[in-house]
Amino acid sequence: MKASTILNISFLQVVLNLYLAEAAIAEQEPIRLLTAKDIKVGDFETFSKVLFKLANKTKSQALDPTRAYDPINVRDTWFSVANYFRRADGFTKGSWDNPNIKEYWDEQLAAFNKGLAALLIPGERVQIPADNFIIEAIWYSADKVKKKRPTLIIGNGYDAAQEDLYHIMAVHAWALGWNALTYEGPGQPTVRRSQDLGFIPDRERVVTPAVDYVLNEKSDEVDTERLALYGNSMGGYLAARAGAFELRLKAVALNGGVFSVHDSYKAQLPNDPLEIYEAGKKEEFDQAALSLLTLNSTVPTSIRWVLKHGLWAFKTKSPYEFFKKIEQYTLEGITDRIDMPVSVADAEFEGFFKGEPQRVKDALGDKATFHLFSGEAGYHTQSGAFQEMTRVIFGWLHQTLG
Ligand SMILES: *[C@@H]1O[C@H](CO)[C@@H](O)[C@H](O)[C@H]1NC(C)=O
Ligand SMILES: *[C@@H]1O[C@H](CO)[C@@H](O)[C@H](O)[C@H]1NC(C)=O
Questions:
Q1: Most buried pick, 64, 152, 290, 324, via CB within 10 A?
Q2: Residue ranges per domain, the chain?
Q3: Which ligand sits closest to the CA of 296?
Q4: What class does CATH assign to 122-260+329-402?
Q5: Ligand 2: which residue has its CA nearest to atom 8?
Q6: Which ligand is nearest to the CA of 52?
Q7: Atom 10, ligand 2: which residue's CA is nearest?
Q8: Any signal peptide, and if so, which residues (predicted)?
Q9: Cβ distance 234 to 258 under 8 Å?
Q10: Number of neighbours of residue 66 by Cβ within 10 angstroms
Q11: Which residues line ligand 2 (CB under 6 A)?
């Protein structure tokens, strides 16, 4: 598979693609994707192995001395290596002791840092102290000439890494003359590993120190009147929550809007376990939910992945506790505090947060600008159509902030 074909795919989309591939295999359709054809249907381990093989092969290309005549190509090869290691990591969370969780991540960080250092204006890794953790961030200056410019703080959600956000968003921000700061808080890939911290619902604890950082450390580069926050995927909830408490932000873009993470995920549970959950039977629910995760489960890969990843990211071994924890991830009683323009995106074929953007829009009233992405851009966070997504989001930012 050519590097460029999956370079920009976010992990949730990979899951969705795998799910579609499962459906295609089940229907005996010819599978032409060379890497995908080696993945055993529904088997997380072969997925990791196959993607690891691709990552490792690409790494040997990045290291190949005969390619050194073209440093930009080498840089982009490192970005591909990083991307493939991240994808290989995607299905590793079934067992927290899986050594690949650390090994693949170390590989992706090292490869990404090689790419980062070779950019025209190298991205700058920064660690920002917060109350009882450290935010992992990357600062991308818009230009070598220091001048106050619009600045976008960019965060992911449930699973993807800030390294993904370079390709999805930061590179587009850059092309439009914006500075960008990508960041990760507790529960997100690097912080979850290096500080052993699961997700926290009160995202202002992450965003406020990030805002402090750009305003204090980058004051000669940041136009305070054009400082905005973007939230990707479940980051749509996190960014809205932060926007309610961090008033120095001048606009917030949610892609998509997520009113309640709990409602969205609960809706994906099969009927029987759902009833047990609603009845508050913790042990019985844990048993039922964990049995959904086995290799021969008839439950779709996407749902099994959501739960396995969620247990790891929220740092609990109990599915019941996981669902209880995500109850706190709601904008109920918070939306009135949001006092800035908000862009709320929805996607025609949204699978994870179906109907949630409409709820956010309704709660925000006049403060919200709603945008429905459809057709080719109609998938979760516009996977495969990021150009379309960034054109709309930056169009709105320019219109809103001048
Ligand atoms: C990774 O690739 C290198 C060079 O191509 C090879 O020597 C090595 O065995 C591979 N590692 C694994 C674990 O497959
Ligand atoms: C899954 O099903 C296959 C075929 O029915 C069987 O051979 C295999 O042992 C099962 N694996 C598990 C983990 O139950």
A1: 152
A2: 1-118, 122-260+329-402, 263-326
A3: 2
A4: alpha beta
A5: 296
A6: 1
A7: 296
A8: 1-26
A9: yes
A10: 5
A11: 295-296
